[in-house]
Structures are given as structure tokens and as C-alpha cells.
Sequence to fold (457 residues):
Amino acid sequence: MTSRRDFFKLAGAAVAASAVSKVAMAALPEIVSTNTADTQSPLSPLSGRPYHPVVTLNGWTLPWRMSNGVKEFHLVAEPVVREIAPGMKANLWGYNGQSPGPTIEVVEGDKVRMYVTNRLPEATTIHWHGQRLPNGMDGIAGLTQPAIAPGKTYVYEFEAKRPGTFMYHPHADEMMQMAMGLMGFWVTHPKNPKFMPVDRDYVFLLNSYDIDPGSYTPKTSTMLDFNLWTFNSRAFPGIAPMVARKGERVRIRVGNLTMTNHPIHLHGHEFEVTGTDGGWVPKSARWPEVTTDIAVGQMRAIEFIADAPGDWAFHCHKSHHTMNAMGHQLPNMLGVDQSDLLDKITHLVPDYMAMGKSGSGDMAEMAGMMPLPENTLPMMGGQGQFGPIDMGGMFTTVKVRESLAKDDYKDPGAYQHPAGKVAYELHGEEPDIQREKTPEPMGDMEMNVLKPMNHAH
Fold:
């Protein structure tokens, strides 16, 4: 994390320095910025009301200052470079050096003052998605406020009236600005710190981008055919795991700012949806699930007891959303003999490899061997302790361990399975299966029932 002094060395800083005087900038809260894509430790409150902080997946929480009982934050909208996963970076728009921007954490009843400086090449605003606030603070360019011109700083002031899970994003040239990654997470903690307590509280946004292989900048007019689906603008294998100690109560809050819905699925556990951007769900209205669909513009908070040790998959259940650099015009080559064509092409392109004869899973195995265009990711490129993981995009893991320190969020590595608790290859003869006809015919057909053959001992 860097201070304002270091931050001015970043691209685009000269624009703001020339537009906003040093005297005016010095009176504002210090600009805090970071360009790391790592999950940072929770920011424990040093002032104001107490709360249990959240952890932003591949992200961080923005510090604040107290001024006469008001929490003051400083957000800077600016061009940023975001690493989508190792091997690929994207030219995006974000806040304070990152896209998505830093998470804002406040407490119910806090008086909040948000300074927003615009270092983008066009005007912007910020809409505080889901907040109860004065109409003039709602952030709709032209409707509730003048747009924030490049180089200008605007101030938003309101009270965080209700606890819950929210977002912030522009309501100015939305198609361009949100497609470029301009968004962030907001959490208002309950005034009573004992209300719905959890041991670990994770947050992240769902994002999608259309970036051609070899390119760095998203195509902002795409409506449906995105080729990168991300958690907090990170794609697997670049998404960090979420860790928990066995027996802990875990909350995961997810906001959707893509152009489609996402059925988010957790392996190995059941969870309940305990909150939306409209508020907390009463216990009487919850039910157990392993998948919850999150529509466009919605927030969901799920909770579960991490009672099953292991490395459990957590992902969108739309199969194309767990792939990287998807090409939607690729033909299905399953079963097609490409040997003659392969011989001809390799004379021109020595490193060419035919794809798809036996499925596309072999792409994960060849991810480290085959050449890729500059600044792109293989469709599937993760590695696990047992071999390639045929996943990309919106995929990560929830890692539950018997012993983790309360404040330990580091990746504990691969799960060490107990003896005899891993699926294994069968060696030797398969068990005999005998077909036995049912006594009653069913029309012109007879049903065959499979029964194991009894062996005399």
C-alpha cells in the first residue's frame, strides 16, 4: 500500500495535480492507494464504533480519518492496470490504484463524508447502490448532481442509516465506465457488534470483460459475449482461496455488476442466504442451499459452518463462466481426425497443436507448453496436487482446516487427505454384473435390471 506521496508517481497523477491546487489537496484526507492484487488483511477499526472487519478477496479496505465525528474517505477515479491473473494485465478504470476499488467499511449511524477526485478523461459520478440518503447525494449525473469533470473533486455527505451489503459505481456513461471496471464494495456494519456475528466475513464483486487475446483494453460495447469472467477482476488461477478454521461460521458477500446472472455454487457444505442489498433475511425466511442465483445489480450474503476439512470448489455454475479467453465461434471438433491437417499446418506453424478431438480438457494439460498470444490466458490453466484443474474464470476454493489462527488468512496449501479418503483407480477385475429380466413385460419391451452376481464363498 502506498501513501499520497508515492501515489502521485502513478500514471495520470499530473492531470489532477494541475487541476486541483496543492493547498486544496492538502486539506483533504490523504490519498491511500495500492496496486497489488493480493488479498490484504482485514483493517481493524482504530477509531469510531467497533465492528468485525471484512476481508476483500484479492482486494483491500480503504482507511479513513475522523473529523469532528465524521468519517472521511478519499476515492480517486482513475485509469489503473489490473493483473487479471499471472500472465495477463488489463488497462481498466478503477479507484485508488485498483479495479474494483477499495472496500468502504462503516457502522450503522456513522456520518460519512466521501471526497471523490476525478482523474479520468471524462466526467463521472458515484452512485451509492442501496443506500438510504438525500436525493442530491445519490450520484446520478444530470438528475441529482452535475457530473464531476476531469480534475475536479466533489463531496458526498450522508448518514449510513441501515446495516447491510452495498456497492458503489458511476451513474455517468455507465456502459463505458462500468465495462472498464469502475466499481467497488461497501459494507455498513450493524451498530450492535453482536448482531449476526461470524468468524470470517469475505466480500467481492462479480465482473466480466471482453479483451481480445494480445490486447489490454476491454471492448466496452459488448453486451453478452464476454470472454473473461472474474471475481473482483481476477480470473482463476489468479483468484485467492478463502480460508476458514473447522467449526467457524463464515459469511461470503457477493455483488453482481456483470450483464448476466450467476448461480454461485459451494461444494462440501450447505449454506443459507442471510442478506441482500435490501437488508438481512429473517431466520424464518431462510432455507438451506448449495447454489444461489445472483441477478444483475444484486447482492447476496451467504453463511455456513465450515465443518468439513478440505479444499472445496466455489464457482459460478455456468460452465462458460469457468473458462478464460473464451472464443464463442469455435467449432466442436470432438471426434474429428485432424492428423492430415495437422501435418500441413505444422510445416507453417511448428508449435501448432490440434485441439478438441477428445474434448477440451487437454488444454489444461498443455497450458504450460503451447505458445499463447501476448497478454492472454489459457482457457484452463490451474494446477492442483493431482494434476491440471480444468477451470478458469469464476472459480476458486474454500479451504477449511482443523487449525488456523483467528487472524490467519494465508493460503494453507493443498489439503492433506486422510488415508483411504481419495477417489482411486480400480486395478484388477471389475465386479461382475448380471442382467436379470423382470417378470412383467412392459409393452413390446422388457426392462432390464442390473443386479450384482452372488458368489458362493
The chain has six helices and 26 strands. Confidence is low (pLDDT under 50) at residues 2-19. The first helix runs from residue 4 to 7.
